[in-house]
Write a structure and sequence with these properties.
The chain is an alpha/beta fold and 290 residues long. The chain contains 14 helices and eight strands.
């Protein structure tokens, strides 16, 4: 548990203006995002599963694997981070353990979704959800399980595709009333619907997170998201998609040409890479002995 990071996350929610979360999937990506200036990190579920076990986001990764990755990131970064905790990995006792384990790992918050199990990436076809009443029970258990009241519980709903915008709004209100600190409607399609939900959350004083996934939505500015009524904005898949595209093109070109010449100027210098990893601090380790 890192009470200072948790308190900082709470402060960010109280400050005016939108909070921008940089979505990481491993320690290197997290350090790059922090050094770029992001004051809040998010550990994305889809991208973390891809980099950790190489499977699509179908709920295959275990709670232990995901909290292990969260612990690695938290140890090497100094800003708060919230993590994708899927459905809480099971029933109510599992939700309690999930909260305690992520908190112990050094995360400053999690988001819990209302999907049925086995869950899927919210952008996939065929996503189904549990009843709003059962989802509320999960949120209440999560809130009461945290040791630090500044550990942020984000309540996510994936009901839009099967039940529509009005139900997404209703569930967001129910989750906030149940004690969630932030609500997270997922996979809404049109800008008009995002704006309608955001305006209603702002009217009710409910902090809401907008996760931009679709190609046209990724280009929306943070200012636009703030004007729609959202408190936190992230682009959940953007980092992993950017890295995957670059690596795929590099690999294919290298294999085809037998040389890396076409990518020399596109790659980072090894000394700059070492700086990101903190080589100066590691080389100065003997300073701890004086």
């Amino acid at each position: 548990m890192d009470v200072k990071k948790n308190a900082r996350f709470r402060e960010l929610l109280k400050q005016p203006g939108i909070v921008v979360a940089g979505v990481a999937y491993d320690v290197l990506s997290a350090r790059i995002l922090e050094q770029a200036g992001f004051e809040l990190l998010a550990m994305g579920g889809n991208s973390t599963m891809a980099s950790l076990i190489g499977y699509p986001d179908l709920g295959i990764a275990t709670e232990t694997e995901m909290t292990g990755r969260a612990r690695q990131i938290a140890m090497r970064t100094s800003v708060p981070m919230y993590c994708d905790a899927d459905t809480g990995y099971g029933d109510l006792p599992s939700v309690r353990r999930t909260v305690l384990d992520y908190e112990a790992a050094g995360a400053s918050g999690i988001h819990l979704e209302d999907q049925t199990m086995p869950k899927k990436c919210g952008a996939m076809a065929g996503v189904t959800v549990i009843s709003a009443e059962l989802a509320v029970e999960k949120i209440k258990v999560a809130v009461k399980s945290r040791r630090d009241p500044n550990f942020i519980i984000i309540a996510r709903t994936d009901c839009y595709n099967s039940m529509g915008l009005d139900e997404a709004i209703r569930r967001c209100k129910m989750f906030y009333e149940a004690g969630a600190d932030v609500v997270m409607p997922e996979n809404i399609k049109s800008k008009a619907e995002w704006a309608k939900l955001g305006a209603e959350m702002r009217r009710c004083g409910i902090p809401a997170l907008i996760d931009l996934i679709d190609d046209d939505q990724i280009s929306w500015t943070n200012k636009e998201c703030e004007e729609m009524g959202f408190k936190i904005v992230c682009r959940g898949m953007y980092t992993i998609l950017a890295v995957t595209k670059f690596l795929k093109e590099l690999a294919e070109d290298y294999y085809k040409t037998g040389s890396a010449a076409n990518y020399v100027d596109k790659c980072m210098n090894i000394r700059d890479y070492e700086k990101i990893l903190g080589i100066a601090d590691e080389n100065d380790i003997r300073g701890l002995l004086t």
